[in-house]
Write a structure and sequence with these properties.
single chain
């Protein structure tokens, strides 16, 4: 078998197995165990992958296009925009009218026009790629895996580890946003529970942003200014 053919076969094997490793590790509840299992699986193929990570013409059909790669840049810009405009994005003010009882209570956040603020936690999912297929971060982890051959072979395993950490934090952020949205409806819940879970959501997003920024670095992609544009 020619060297180029061997490279293509190995590359196809690596890209086929890594997504399965992600799915397998996601079924493990212990974060440390999941990461170790993932790194063990990745390590099996790292040696083989290292021989083919220099982009070749034959890889054109297996690696993402520049247009696809740029989605990660736009997605990161949107996450930065979300963090810099957190309050205005995750709450709507001045559109509700307080009842007499609410006027007597302590209102944590007052809006204009005699209204008050309502939290909108699910807006977070809009910026993390969990609501629309048009979002640049929709299934971003799969795009990151396909882009693995573009990474310097010396940093291949480190890159995969960061991708796994990104997927974990993005999933947790989206899950916490959903939990926050039901904070008042659940038994024993209330507006305080919405606030508490929304703050936990922000913490996860704050951890997601530098991981995404790191991935851009591995792929030699420029960090764009914060923007809500898709």
């Amino acid at each position: 078998m020619k060297l180029q053919s061997k490279r293509s076969v190995i590359l196809a094997l690596v890209l086929a197995v890594l997504p399965e490793a992600f799915a397998w590790t996601s079924s493990t509840t212990d974060t440390q165990s999941r990461r170790q299992a993932f790194k063990t699986t990745a390590a099996i193929f790292t040696g083989a992958a290292a021989t083919l990570l220099t982009p070749l013409p034959s890889h054109a059909e297996t690696t993402p296009s520049q247009k696809d790669i740029e989605k990660l840049q736009r997605g990161h810009a949107r996450v930065r925009y979300l963090l810099e405009n957190w309050d205005s994005i995750t709450q709507t003010c001045g559109k509700g009218i307080m009842s007499d009882l609410e006027r007597k209570q302590i209102i944590r956040t007052e809006g204009g026009g005699g209204g008050f603020c309502e939290k909108t936690p699910l807006k977070v999912q809009d910026y993390l790629g969990y609501k629309s297929t048009n979002d640049p971060l929709f299934k971003a982890d799969k795009l990151m895996l396909k882009a693995a051959p573009l990474v310097d072979p010396d940093f291949f395993e480190d890159y995969l580890d960061v991708v796994e950490q990104y997927r974990e934090k993005a999933d947790q952020g989206a899950m916490m946003a959903y939990t926050s949205s039901w904070g008042e409806a659940n038994p024993g819940g209330g507006k305080e529970m919405i606030d508490e879970f929304l703050e936990m959501t922000k913490t996860e997003v704050e951890k997601t942003e530098p991981l995404l920024r790191s991935i851009l670095g591995y792929l030699n992609l420029e960090v764009l200014p914060p923007s809500k544009a898709m």
